[in-house]
Amino acid sequence: MAGFFLASTRDPAFCDRAMAAARAQFPLHGFSGLSEVERPGWKLIQAPHIIGGPESLLVQGDDVVAIAGTLVCDGKMGRPALEALLSLDWPKPDWSRIGGHFAAMIHKGGRTFLLTDFFAAFQLFHDTELRLFSTSLLSAANALERLSFLPQGVYEYGFNVVPIGDDTVFAELKTLGPDRLIELTRDGPVSHPLAKHLPEAATDMPLAERIVRQREALAAIVRPHVEAYGDRIFCPLSGGLDSRLLLALLREAGARPSLYVYGGPGNEDVAIAKAIGAAEGFEVEWIDKSVRTITPEEFPEQVERNFQTYDALPNFGELFESGANAAARAARHQGGAMSASGGCGEVFRNFFYLPDRRMSAAAVARTFFARYAKSDLTDAFDERAFLRGLEDKILHAIGREGERGPLARGMIEQIYPRVRCRPFFGREISNEARFGAYLMPFLDHRVAAEAMTLPLQLKNAGRFEATLIDAIDPALARQPSAYGHNFAEPPNRAHRWSELNTRIRPAWLRQKSYAIRRRMGPMADEHGGLLKPEWLGRVIDLEFPAMRRFFRVGQIADSSLLRRVANLEYLAQRMGSRLAA
Predict the structure, then answer these.
(1) Residue closest to 118 by CA, chosen among 445, 543, 391, 441
(2) 10 Å Cβ neighbour count for 216?
(3) What are the φ/ψ torsions at residue 356 (nearest 5 degrees)?
(4) Domains of the chain with bracketed CATH
(5) Which pLDDT tens digit goes with each residue over 2-31?
């Protein structure tokens, strides 16, 4: 991400302790070549990308710009982008000129500002007193004398892979939200509100015009990255819509990216990706992460390495894997190359599979975010408070605080980029982009704005996205997909029915789906991990002294949930005596 850590000098003892914690932690993440800058009121540590990427620090006289992540400003990357960002009118940035996913510190004309990208996908952690700001969770946590687990954050991480909104798993640490910019003054931090509008309803527009508008928006996002990296781009390919659209955009911009597919023997995505490559005349590297093995004796060292690499809490709790993920990521950025992702492509689709009618935020919370079985949980779980917490976060994110009644259907669509994508893909972006440049074009405010105007009938079954692929790259559209039809033709009956079958289920039944599935037998996901006692027992106390407050661990028969709970236990173990009981 490159990375940076900033501490206020108002409390010199705290500042010294915090800076020492960051200096110790950043090399453990893999950073080198740290720079330190001091201006009145604060001190900064900044690190360039671990493997290689655009320039991320600009010092011009007294003015400073420090970036973590991947910034595009005025269609430029690297130093020209930093200079363009510095030239903006602060604290009122012009978002039409800004793209990418990043955290930024700008010191201009004696004033210092902190902000994130449009959706605050790139994570910038801070303490509740706003004395420190860090792109590293571990650096922020290590700078504090006391920590305590936040039940809402712990349960959201357990059930939904990541805490949503501004929360972390710790009560004392938050993430900077998209709705404000922080100015650091001699007298303390000042918060400036940021208005970030998205269309609130679908519009009536010919399909051909929609295709042109979205295609132009996507091309404007992809073009600077291709101009900067050419063919030095690594891109996934699978049987789905999103990776196909990403590849079409890169090819349209003139790039010939290196392609890869993940999966084991017999995996459908592998077969389809290989078939597309053979038909189109390009290589697709097959990566089977299960072939990488380690011994039990090597496991503790690998877990510790993962803990540092993933900044404590990877998506899906992949702390207990063999190191195959790290090897694959290093390959994606070899020689300073850029990695691209089709994440957030479901902005073009009906992600929550909800019917076309008004619905309350509480109903959306129960439908999608309430994925738990009460038998796994202790009395610390307050279901009513948990669901209300989710509802309040959703309403805050879409600017509808306190509106407990049904929301317009267009506002429901905003929940996907503003609530789901921000933390879910944001954690991925924040971890991956510390190694090199990272492109996720579908999580861009210009793309999301166009997508918010799509009628649901075009989102259902991927109709619009398939048509967009066909308009950009007809040859790719004609290749087979995992849906049983190619993207140059309408969705087949099976595809339509699979979505309809979910849309017609009421919210109360959707909420119970996970618990019902659990009663049918043990569950697992594709992210695996070495979770048997003979492995986990080497790295954590299998009595789960920290997490047994929140979970009945012995009852958990879902390996994905167990993996995340074990991840939290390992984190608690590493925090030691600073973590309140």
Answers:
(1) 445
(2) 12
(3) -85, 75
(4) 3-193 (3.60.20.10), 207-348+422-489 (3.40.50.620), 521-578 (no CATH)
(5) 899 999 999 999 999 999 999 999 999 999
